[in-house]
Amino acid sequence: MSYQFHQIASLLEKMTSSDKDFRFMATNDLMTELQKDSIKLDDESEKKVVRMILKLLEDKNGEVQNLAVKCLGPLVNKVKESQVETIVDSLCLNMTSNVEQLRDISSIGLKTVILELPQSSNSLAPSVCRRITGKLNIAIDKEDVSVKLEALDILTDLLSRFGLFLVPFHTQILKALIPQLESPRQAVRKRSIVALSHLLSLADDGIFDSVIERLLKGLKNNSNSGAVRTYIQCLASICRQSGPRLCNHVNPAIEILKRYSQSDDDEVHEFCLQAFEAFVYRCHDAVTPHISMILGICLKYLSYDPNYNYESDDGQNSLLMDTEEGEYVDTDDYSDDDDISWKVRRASAKCLESLITTRLEFTESFCQDLGPILILRFKEREENVKSDIFHVYITLLKTIKSTNALAHDPDSMEEVPRTISLLQDQLKDIIKIIQPLMRERSMKTRQDCFHLLRELLSVLPGSLGPYLDEIVPGISYTLSDKNSTSNIKINALGFLCSLLASNTPSYLFQAHISVLVPLIITAVFDSFYKISTEALQVLQQLVKVIRPLEDPQLSLPNDFKMNTYVEDLYSATLKKLLTADVDQEVKDRAISCMGQIIANMGDFLVPQVQSCLPILLERLNNEVTRLSSVKAIYMIAASPLRIDLSLIIKDVIPVLGSFLRKNHRALKLNSLDLLNKLVENYSQAFNPQILHLVIVELKPLISDTDLHIAQYCLILLTTTAQKHPKALEGIHGQFLPAVLVLIRSPLLQGSALTCTLDLLQVLVQTNIESLDYNSLLNKLMDPIIVGNEQLHKQAHHSIAKCIAALTLKCPWEAIPLASRLLDYIQKSTESNDLKMSFCLLTIGEIGRNFDLSPIFSLPQTLIECFSASSEDVKSSSSLALGAVAVGSLKTYLPLILREIEVQPKRQYLLLHSLKEVISSLSVTQYGLSQLLPSVPSIWTQLFKHSESSEEGSRNVVAECLGKLVLVNPEELLPLLRDALYSNNPVMRAVVVSSIKYTISDQPQCIDHLLKQNLSEFLSSLRDPEPSVRRVALVTFNAAIHNKPTLVRDLLPTLLPYLYSETKVKSDLIREVEMGPFKHTVDDGLDIRKAAFECMYTLLEQGLDRVDVKQFLSHVQAGLCDHYDIKMLTYLMTARLAILCPDAVLQQLDQFVQQLRETCTYKVKANSVKQEHEKQDELKRSALRAVSALSQIPSADKNQHLMDFLKTIKDTPDLYKIYECVQKDSNSNNPENTSMDQS
């Protein structure tokens, strides 16, 4: 510490030196010291350092002054509050000095202090704000313009950074700012506007409204054009800062702006359009009635160019605009020198972009009416305006793409969306206008052309094929022009790559290959690595176009001489491949490109391939390029040309085996993929013993820690067993134990389980010792039957499926094995329920594929197991009965239906068996042919029990009915619809619930029928019975989640009923006496929960069809409901803050109030532990919502939110949770805020 004091004292002494270099170096060293976290200054040192820095601000040497200013930043964080106040007072005093240099340096110093002041300090920042504000107000009133400008800049910084601390001084600041709006100096007016807009974002409603009314009154009565411009600019700036607060004043403001937009002043036109743009972005609902008027004004001024006659410049009369340009032509009043009409056109374009971005509901109308006008305006003469018009059309394309992604189901058979067909009609005009623009000297225009064409490709894949004759010359011009910049070349190559990769037929490129190949090869050898990388990617796509792998014999037309280009492409790529001193991206791309050339054209390059393959092998052994090499060799190995790899394959396989030990997941996956392809396509090219080096590496990878890698290992083993079974002889002990452990994992399911079944079926057919049927069967069964191993239920299911898969390849073993298992069940005691459950599941899986009707005692035994005391045995026997019925339908289905009728106590389990039959048989065409004759009898039996007193049974009946309707929708859906009008509410609930099981996220033949009838089923949302309304809400939720296209058009009708179910209904609340206590029961809670879950799903799938304001009001109501509802609405609040921030911002006060009540609620001290835990979880969820709300742009201007955040920081318990929540939100992607929909 003493060393630090000595060091500081030494530096301070040097700062008094007459030598400016000494002063400079000492100041620089002091700044270095101040930036260290470890530095501590005592009171005396602080005073000395502050005095010296302030003195150096007046130094005669400018460099020393600049360094002294930079020292202020770290200094304010190292000294006490009193010293910071001394600094601020001195700077404020110097800011009004008569010496210009001192004034300027003091202003910079004040800005530095404001920027570095810690926002979290309790008293420092408010104290500094108090000291500065009054002095700034005085400085603003000074006549010296430079002082005014600096003071306004500092005030703006202060308001934007510490606005909350200045609330008590708003009236004083306002008195200083308002007169500056009348200043004759434009710079003063502009800075006053910025400061005023920051002030009003935090001002109370009284001050805010008074200023807005003053501005509107000034616009109404003022004839001074300068004042009018200022007021309009001020309105626009205030709207950008605090748009939602301006909503109440939008109507009168827009009426006034509409009047001024008809004036003769171009600057007023520009400012009006900028104000309209701000209103459109920030006052979404309030501006809605004026959208058509704003659009009309924008279109009028988009073509406003008084000094230019486009007709004389453009002979393409067919594309001339039909506008009112003539009325503006007045050559006596305008000249090119003072023409600012381009600013009006630019403001108009930006306003149009805001309309397209925010008004998704008008996308089709914009595409139809605005699209052609924008295309015609591509001929704009001013480069910057032309660029803006391009961006407006590009924004329109992006909007069309996003709205179609939401509204149109790509798997459905519906007609092409209207916007897409409109766009296709405009394509010809776009190309006609763009063609000459692609050869303009302006780089910006050419870049915009490529950007637009690339966006067109993403919306209309393959649409540019017929226009290659018009497009390719533009690409050629850019790539061959010596004046083209790197960026424009990269853009041109990027577009060309997209064009080649689109769905354009290969033959359309025939005439242009001769032009493109030399250009691309030249670009490959460009000195800038990014151009070279992009060119190699284009070259790779070009190879696919010249020789498509899908049908290598049927490439381009017969008169196309492929040979002339193959050698050039190969030579260029090889040269780049052999260049050592290039960027990593270029190396990777060259390797990938060479792999594509050999894969697609290897039969034309037989001698060259044999010399190139060793190079790829060398790259494979290089740590930097090994992943790219694996992918390249995979392309070659997968090629239908069957390229000769005998030269390297024996070296490649061991290297790939060594890669499986690396801690590099992508490398392992790609290596396994390549190994599988080599075994599949080149099994004759190598000795099977070489695979031992690979197989020994698989054991640690076959694990449930990474099922994706495990699946690739299983596929490789399956292919090896098929193509090279000898490779597994004597070595199966290296992988089989790991496979058996994986089978017993509860995580094994889906495609990984399917791959396991495939492997076992192939292994049992290899005739390898110890891999025969009985050996594998014992390995699977013994741990459970003999070893009494305790496994998860899911593992029992997996093992049962594996045994059934083995038996499928040895069908003669099916009946004996099932009999043996049945015998074990019959002899088992109650204590062996896990073994019994396993045996039942295995019998079921075997019976699914074989007719077990010869085992006469099986049906009775399965039904007797329904009476077991173990729930696992009951459910397993139910599943087994259904599965056995799948393979022996004629024997078992009548039995199940009869037992359902005569065994009411076993009805629930028997219905599950029936559900298994329907589910299993309805997925294949053969199964459907078996099931269809029995449908009438099943349907009748299900309807008999749809009014069962047991809710569980009714739920299973509903699922069975839904799945059965999918079997024969044309006949059964009308029957289900008729049952909707039953007098029994239980029947109606079952019918509505069954519809949920007909809706899938995959396309189905029932979809068109559902779309016609779903409104009738969902009309149950207004059923008088609460239980029916609840299941209707669940069905509605399923439809929105799985297939939103079914209900999007019904939303206007259904949403009022949905919203009505979010309210607490007193008629559904009752009191229950529990001894001496009374307990309140809310029968409407489940309905409300279902309604809010439905609303949550709407956030993701249908928010564009929803009135957001109305939606938000119901979310707010849920914030003070029951615990379960609160948890849902907190999730929704966080999501809404991301999806529609402006709408949430308008109602932020209400959200904050409800969240504050939750976070500050105190649980009674004598409450049970569960109550405390529930409240903690509520607080955590509420604070997640608060964190999301605080991320909304301009949310920091909301006084209520800022006060609440301060309360959180001042409450240690809340702040601790809030910090954890913020860390979580930073580590996770906020876009993935989702809820489990299961």
Automatic annotation (TrEMBL):
For this UniProt record, the keywords arranged alphabetically read as follows: Repeat, Ubl conjugation pathway
A Gene Ontology biological process annotation? SCF complex assembly
InterPro entries registered for this protein in UniProt: ARM-like, ARM-type_fold, CAND1/CAND2, HEAT_type_2, TATA-bd_TIP120
UniProt repeat feature HEAT, residue ranges? 49-86
Where in the numbering of this chain does the TATA-binding protein interacting (TIP20) domain appear? 1046-1209
Asked whether the UniProt record includes Repeat among its keywords, one would answer yes
Q: Does the keyword Repeat apply?
A: yes
Q: Which PROSITE patterns match?
A: HEAT_REPEAT (PS50077)
Lineage top rank: taxon: Eukaryota
- Which SUPFAM superfamilies does UniProt cross-reference here? ARM repeat
Protein family per UniProt: Belongs to the CAND family.
Identify the PANTHER family for this entry. TIP120 (PTHR12696)
Name of protein: (Mediterranean fruit fly) hypothetical protein
**Species:** Ceratitis capitata
Q: Which gene encodes it?
A: CAND1
